[in-house]
C-alpha cells in the first residue's frame, strides 16, 4: 500500500508541475499581441527570422550553462526523433508567421478564434493518434466548434483561414512534441537550429538590400527584435514541459487562457469589429468548450472516487 501511494504522489506532483508550466506558458502567449504590436515597422517574415535566430542564441547559451550541448548531437543522430522534430519545426514556424501576420493586419480577434478552436482540435487529435477516448460530450463539443466556424464563414462570406491555420498548426505541433522522445529544451533547440540558417540568411539578405529593420536607426526595433527570441523560447519550453507531463486533453483545457486574453485585447483595447455573426460563432465555440470542460471535470472527479478493495490498481481511501 505504501508503494501505491508513493506512485500516486509522484504522478500527482508531476501533473501539478505540468499545470503550472501550462498556466505560465499560456499567460505569456496571451500577452503576445502587445509585444508584437510594438514591432510595427518590421515585416512578418523578418520578425519570424529574428525570432528563430535569437531563440537559437538564447537556447544554446542555456544548454551551455546546463552542460547539455552534447545532447543536440545525440538528437540529430536519432533519425526517428529528428524526423518528428522536422515536422514540428515546420508547424511552429507556420504558426509564428501567421500569428504575426494576424496581429499586424488587425486580426487579433481571428487569432483568438483559432486558439479557442485548438483545445477541441487537441481532443480530436488525441482520439485519432493517441487512442485517447472521445466521449459523446466531447464529440458534441467538437461539432459545436465546427458549427461556429461554418457560421462565421457563411455570415461574413470569408473563410476564417487565419484561425484555422493557427489551430491546426499548433494542435499538430503539440501532438508531435508529445510523441518526440527528447528533453524539452534540447528539442526546441534542435527545432530552431533546423531553421536558423534560413533565418540568418534572410536577415543578411534584407541587410544587403537595405530593406531590413534591424540596426538601421530604430532603437525600439534594435532592442525588441533580439528580445523576441527570449519571449519565444520561454513559453515554448514551458508548454513542452506541460505537454510531456499532462494528457493532451488537459493541455488543451489550459489553453483557454491564451484566446481569452487575445479576445479581450482585440475587443477592449484594439476595438476590432465584433458583429452579431462573430458573437454567434463564439457562442457556439464557448458552449462547446463549456461542455468539454464539464465532461473533463466529471471524469477527473470520478477517477479519484474509487473505493478501497476495488480492482483498480491505484485505490484511494
How would you describe this protein?
With 317 residues, the chain is mainly α. It has one domain (2-303). It contains 13 helices and no strands. The longest helix is centred in the first third of the chain and has 29 residues, at 2-30. The protein is globular, with a radius of gyration of 21 Å. Residues 306-317 have low confidence and may be disordered.
Number of domains as seen in the coordinates: 1
Net shape: globular
Count of DSSP E strands? Answer: 0
Mean pLDDT: 84
Overview features:
317 residues; mainly alpha; disordered C terminus; 0% strand; single chain
Concise overview:
With 317 residues, the protein is an all-alpha fold.
Question: What does the secondary structure layout of this molecule look like, with pairings?
Answer:
Elements lengths: L1 H29 L1 H6 L6 H22 L3 H9 L1 H26 L3 H22 L6 H21 L4 H19 L4 H25 L10 H25 L4 H7 L2 H13 L6 H28 L14
Amino acid at each position: 500500500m505504501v508503494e501505491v501511494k508513493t506512485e500516486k504522489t509522484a504522478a500527482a506532483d508531476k501533473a501539478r508541475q505540468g499545470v503550472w508550466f501550462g498556466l505560465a506558458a499560456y499567460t505569456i502567449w496571451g500577452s503576445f499581441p502587445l509585444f508584437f504590436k510594438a514591432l510595427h515597422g518590421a515585416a512578418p517574415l523578418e520578425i519570424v527570422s529574428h525570432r528563430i535566430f535569437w531563440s537559437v542564441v538564447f537556447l544554446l547559451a542555456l544548454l551551455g550553462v546546463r552542460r547539455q550541448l552534447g545532447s543536440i548531437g545525440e538528437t540529430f543522430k536519432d533519425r526517428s526523433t529528428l524526423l518528428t522534430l522536422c515536422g514540428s519545426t515546420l508547424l511552429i514556424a507556420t504558426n509564428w508567421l501567421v500569428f504575426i501576420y494576424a496581429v499586424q493586419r488587425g486580426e487579433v480577434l481571428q487569432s483568438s478564434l483559432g486558439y479557442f478552436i485548438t483545445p477541441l482540435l487537441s481532443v480530436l487529435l488525441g482520439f485519432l493518434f493517441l487512442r485517447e477516448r472521445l466521449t459523446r460530450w466531447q464529440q458534441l463539443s467538437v461539432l459545436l466548434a465546427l458549427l461556429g466556424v461554418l457560421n462565421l464563414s457563411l455570415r461574413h462570406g470569408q473563410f476564417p483561414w487565419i484561425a484555422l491555420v493557427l489551430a491546426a498548426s499548433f494542435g499538430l505541433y503539440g501532438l508531435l512534441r508529445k510523441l518526440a522522445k527528447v528533453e524539452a529544451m534540447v528539442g526546441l533547440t534542435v527545432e530552431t537550429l533546423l531553421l536558423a540558417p534560413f533565418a540568418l540568411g534572410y536577415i543578411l539578405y534584407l541587410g544587403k538590400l537595405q530593406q531590413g529593420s534591424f540596426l538601421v536607426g530604430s532603437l525600439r526595433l534594435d532592442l525588441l527584435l533580439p528580445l523576441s527570441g527570449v519571449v519565444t523560447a520561454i513559453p515554448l519550453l514551458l508548454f513542452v514541459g506541460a505537454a510531456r507531463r499532462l494528457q493532451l486533453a488537459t493541455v488543451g483545457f489550459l489553453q483557454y487562457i491564451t484566446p481569452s486574453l487575445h479576445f479581450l485585447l482585440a475587443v477592449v483595447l484594439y476595438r476590432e469589429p465584433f458583429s452579431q455573426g462573430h458573437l454567434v460563432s463564439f457562442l457556439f465555440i464557448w458552449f462547446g468548450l463549456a461542455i468539454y470542460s464539464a465532461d473533463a471535470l466529471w471524469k477527473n472527479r470520478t477517477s479519484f472516487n474509487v473505493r478501497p478493495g476495488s480492482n483498480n490498481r491505484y485505490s484511494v481511501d
